[in-house]
Amino acid sequence: MARTVRNPAPRALPPRAPAAPAPYLPPADRVARGRSCRSETPRLSHAAWELRADRPDPIALLEEQAAERVPELVPIRYGRMSASPFAFYRGAAYVMAADLAGTPQTGIRVQLCGDAHLANFGGFASAERQLLFDLNDFDETLPGPWEWDVKRLAASVAIAGRENGFKAKRRAAIARQLVREYRHAIRKFATMKPLDVWYARASVDDLQELLRSQLSRSQDRRFDKTVAKGLRKDSARAFAKLAVKGDSEARIRADPPLIVPIADLVDRPGARRLELGARKLLDSYLSSLSGDRRRLLERFRYADLARKVVGVGSVGTRCWVVLLLGRDSSDPLFLQAKEAPRSALERFAGRSEFSNQGQRVVEGQRLMQAASDIFLGWLRQPPGIEDLKLRDLYVRQLWDSKISADIAAMGPSGMAVYARLCAWTLARAHARSGDPIAIASYLGSSDVFDRAIAAFAEAYADQNERDHAALLHAIAIGRVPADPEL
């Protein structure tokens, strides 16, 4: 059981604070900085978790987010979050950000993922068509304390491990291994040249090699099937699933309320205005791409647009699927334009330096990922396209060989290997954007921090279960609406 102490009140962090250290600091000064942080924030202090008397109501935080979302989609979000404690955790980045703001902090900042749990890592194809393993969700990305990402990732192990039936000792061991991998990786990156850190990457083949030494033959076959399924996820596959060929033009197939073409969202004149607006927005989006990517995308023409429900925590934000056609109707390209509200971390970690929240997501993703989608860009939706409010969006391909791990099917050995790969990936992302020398110096060579975070993860898993129960109660008494079927 974690040692609990009263959490300090959340610190007020300065707005627009940079993620990286001053570039002129010599390594010796950065080592000293990391060591000095130990006296201000002892490594064992990270084990602490206890409810603050002024802790915000977690359901109120979710309702605060829901107020800015599409009203008819909010019940889907609550329904998906109610499915299990892990599902709740996936949608509760804002809740945990409020909690982390009151925990001990080193003051060393990096570009945070902001939602670094086990399900937000996965495989995708690079521009060179190599399958890479990396972080794949950056909706909450923002500069902030590096330990927040580590704590969120470790807590996801404790929560997922409970759902998979792992015993407490096994969960704690996996969490310690995860943090040890992060610690070892950041120490390694601290010794490397900046360019070598920048070029470091993990491939899906690396994950296969790691897993094959740990998994049974049947588990190995299941992983091979997952990779094969992911490789088939491209625009052609999306077209077969999401589109229909009409008499004159291909259109996106309706599957309400999860997929609703614009023709079904508004009346015919409104649909026409929305379509014209979408075409103008595509032109605006092109300006965020490099010249070669713009030239490539200009070879495609607009065909259709639909609203799509995605994810768990993102449900209710505006998400559009755009169907483009290249040479002919058998050459589709699907883009996803997703609304980017302000980061869940902003209230606690400071404002982004970017006024456009879509640009915030894109710049954070490019900084943290080893390789990013070639069509990754952003735009600002002006009033009148859908409603009277300015909305920022970021754009990427809908599918590009996307591979997602089946967390629920993992046994203890498989989750341990997978968690270590996630930890290495997170350390590499932090080393790209922050100061690996200072972080490594703070962590040291002992397992003090490993044990502290493992204890925190279990204590926070208890808290997450209480918060999930609070959501179930709120649904039962009618405080919030939920549709668990979608």
Keywords:
single chain, 486 residues, alpha+beta, 2 domains, six-stranded antiparallel beta sheet, four-stranded antiparallel beta sheet, 19 helices, 14 strands, globular
Question: Would you write up a description of this structure?
Answer:
There is one protein chain. The protein is an alpha+beta fold and 486 residues long. The chain has 19 helices and 14 strands. The chain folds into two domains: 27-230 and 407-476, no CATH class; 235-397, no CATH class.
Brief write-up:
The protein has 486 residues and is α+β, with helices and mostly antiparallel strands. It has 19 helices and 14 strands.
Strands, total number? 14
Rg of Cα set: 22 Å
Shape: globular
Main sheet: strands, sense, barrel = 6 strands, antiparallel
Percent helix: 40-55%
Q: How many alpha or pi helices? A: 19
The total domain count is 2
Strand content: 5-15%
- Euclidean distance between termini CA atoms: 36 Å
Structural class: alpha+beta
User: Segments where pLDDT lies below 50 for 5+ residues?
Assistant: 1-14
Strand arrangement within the widest β-sheet reads 8-9-10-11-13-12
- Give average pLDDT, whole number: 88
Please specify the SSE layout and strand pairing:
Layout: H1 27-40, H2 58-66, H3 74-81, H4 85-91, H5 93-100, E1 109-112, E2 121-125, E3 131-135, E4 142-145, H6 146-163, H7 168-190, H8 194-199, E5 202-203, H9 204-212, H10 217-231, H11 235-242, E6 243-245, E7 250-252, E8 259-261, H12 262-265, H13 268-286, H14 291-297, E9 301-308, E10 319-325, E11 332-339, H15 346-349, H16 357-368, E12 377-381, E13 391-397, E14 403-404, H17 412-433, H18 436-443, H19 448-476
Antiparallel strand pairs: 1-4, 2-3, 2-14, 3-5, 6-7, 8-9, 9-10, 10-11, 11-13, 12-13
